[in-house]
UniProtKB/TrEMBL annotation:
This is Protein RSI-1. InterPro entries: GASA. It comes from Quercus rubra. Keywords: Signal. Belongs to the GASA family.
Length: 92
């Protein structure tokens, strides 16, 4: 009977991790109406705001994800990170 408490603990920890990671996965999925504010912030530090917003909104509408911050962090959104146009990154 010594294995039973460990099995219960393992089940409890597994459920906790499942809930935690499902919240993280849900946080990266945006609704299309969330794209504009996310892209406005994403493009706030560039001097080329119009093209940045255009491509960010296009990428967000396809991928439903915008990386955090004003640059970098693209690994958070694989679709956003991997979308290329003529071999160059499509998304800012």
């Amino acid at each position: 009977m010594t294995g039973r408490p460990y099995a219960s603990l393992l089940l409890l920890v597994s459920l906790f991790l499942l809930i935690t990671f499902s919240d993280i996965a849900e946080a990266t999925k945006l609704r299309p109406l969330d794209c504009k504010p996310k892209c406005t912030y994403r493009c706030s530090a560039t001097s080329h705001k119009k093209p940045c917003l255009f491509f960010c909104l296009r990428c967000c509408s396809k991928c439903l994800c915008v990386p955090p911050g004003t640059q970098g962090n693209k690994q958070v959104c694989p679709c956003y990170n991997n979308w290329k146009n003529k071999g160059r990154p499509m998304c800012p």
